[in-house]
Amino acid sequence: MEYAASDLTQRERYKVLTSFVLPRPIAWVTSTGPDGVVNAAPFSFFNVFCEDPPLCMFAVNRRPDGRHKDTLINIQRAGEFVVNLADEDLARAMHETSGDFPPEIGEPGYLGLKLAPSSKIAVPRLADAPWAMECKTWKLIDVNGDRQLIMGEGIHFHIRDELWDREAMRVHMDRYHPIGRMFADRYCRTDDRVVFPAAEGAQKA
């Protein structure tokens, strides 16, 4: 079967995209409000795209009632944020931060998530996250007035000690158990892995 994107409603296009573009990494973004309240929210329209400079991008849509989300408001004001990644131990807490919290209630405080200071920006990171990247806003792109694409430049990385081989510059995959987003309330584990030998390319006769 096939669809022309223009023949589908916005909701139908969302369902087609999120049902097949799987699994998606999740940016668990911390930002700080004007009164110092730390916000944490997950976004699965997310990925990294470049290493020089280190760039990431995630999409923030409006709330169902049309209001802007706290994450966007905070980033527009401060120009900085932290992308934290969640593993299996933090997955449920990450999911809970997707609930509706008013600006004066910070998700980390409400849910008992520990914070740690960042090294180069004012926004704190989630202390127990396996990996976190401090970001400065690189570019904001408005999409149809109801969604913003937030591009951030990573300026500092935090890695849980036991996950990283500093000399080899490699992750210990047997110790790292990231969680991925499927759709609706469904997530996936990433421990069922396949390894292929290096691709050989075209062989000379």
TrEMBL record:
Cofactor(s) the protein requires to work: FMN
Gene3D superfamilies, alphabetized: Electron Transport, Fmn-binding Protein, Chain A
All residue ranges annotated as the Flavin reductase like domain in the record: 19-178
Assigned protein family: Belongs to the flavoredoxin family.
Chain coiled-coil ranges: none
GO molecular function term, any single one: FMN binding
Protein name (Swiss-Prot/TrEMBL): Flavin oxidoreductase
This protein's record includes keyword Signal: no
Keywords: Flavoprotein, FMN
SMART domains on file: Flavin_Reduct (SM00903)
Pfam families in alphabetical order: Flavin_Reduct (PF01613)
Native organism: Bradyrhizobium macuxiense
